[in-house]
Amino acid sequence: MGLQTILFIVFGAVALGAAVAAVVLRNAFHSALALAGSCLGVAGVLVSLGAPILAGVQALVFAGGIAALIKFGPASLRDMTRPGSLGHSRWWWMGVAVAVALCAALGWAAFSHDWGLEPESGLIPSGSIQAMGTTLIDPAGFVLPFASTVILLLVAFVGAARLVRRR
Amino acid sequence: MTVVPLAWVLVFSAALFCVGLYAVLARRNGVTILMGIVLMLDAVLINLAAFWRYGELGTVSGQVFALAVAFVAVAEALVGLALFIALWRSHGTAVLDDVDSLGEREGA
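The joint structure predicted for all components is written out below.
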């Protein structure tokens, strides 16, 4: 087994285990902590896939930003840590059934299809980091989508601030 | 050096997606449902990165798309959390089963 396989299995197991914990735990604060762990595991998987920029974004934005937002925002509200208001719906087994069925169907599709894609070996494809950096600010590249996402974030920030303002 | 088969990565992201799906379907608390959506977006991001890695290594499009997914996830989490805080202020709860009116709760 190569280093990439080991990285993938270890971080994949961490990400999946923490994700299940985030979904099952009753206390929303504990759930948010597990969610941060899961996002860090996903960042490790992205490293094993040879996408270190995405891994950095994942660690900062998901594990750092979103999980912290949930922890210090609504998860600290009184209602969120009170048992009883928090459990699973009465029909939780239906959720399990749907999730397992969809996972089985997707797994069957992934394994039965011949993708015919052979990856270049090596951990990080050479030159991809530099190419990404230049393409994001290249007028002929992706500068417009990149700037649009910045505007989207600005609108989301202003909208969120407007929503939580006390009247 | 051997590499992980693409199907493994796809199955991993499918499993992550389904864990998130369970949270969306079965949890009663709005904030936990939001966490499920974040997990689902995570799975999408892994899929984009995997197909970039295994198919389109010469270009950066796949990574840029994944970056866009990350930004959208932040926007979604921000607005969603703001909505639940506003909901908590007006209804005193974030359990979605208890929220059955669009206006202010009477007497609250």
